[in-house]
Automatic annotation (TrEMBL):
Basic and acidic residues compositional bias, start-end: 112-123
Segments for region (Disordered): 96-123
Originating organism: Xanthomonas oryzae pv. oryzae (strain KACC10331 / KXO85)
Name used for this protein in its record: Transposase
InterPro entries hit by this protein: IS402-like_dom (IPR025161)
Domain Insertion element IS402-like: residue ranges: 16-80
């Protein structure tokens, strides 16, 4: 795993590393154990929270987070709905005590979750 680096800037959407360690096992369920992790999962999680809170476009993700394509890849994996109708992202957000995005970010999370449920219902 990549050594954790300290970002120059902290964002209001960030969570503490201690809180992240409580939800890490949930997020790692999506990971295939074929390759070592080369990105700091904490930074990916904070980037996802930033996106959900601000509603910014993927490509507008601040450059001190991991690359937007990396963050998007994890977001897509974590957003897949399981047999119980819930995604790892939803479980992690619930366990972390996240109260939801601000107005601008709400559409992003809701859109992804609704789309996943709709696709599942069509099957």
């Amino acid at each position: 795993m990549q050594t954790p680096r300290m970002r120059e800037k902290n964002y209001p959407s960030d969570v503490s590393r201690e809180r992240f360690e409580q939800i890490r096992p949930i997020l790692e369920q999506a990971r295939k154990r074929t390759k070592p992790v080369t990105v700091d999962m904490y930074e990916v999680w904070c980037a996802v929270l930033y996106l959900l809170r601000t509603g910014c476009p993927w490509r507008a993700l601040p450059s001190d987070f991991p690359k937007w394509r990396t963050v998007h890849s994890y977001f897509a994996k974590w957003s897949e709905v399981d047999d119980e109708g819930m995604s790892l992202l939803e479980r992690a957000l619930k366990k972390s005590g996240w109260r939801g995005p601000r107005e601008t970010g709400a559409q992003g999370l809701q859109h992804v979750l609704d789309r996943g449920r709709a696709e599942r219902e069509e099957q």
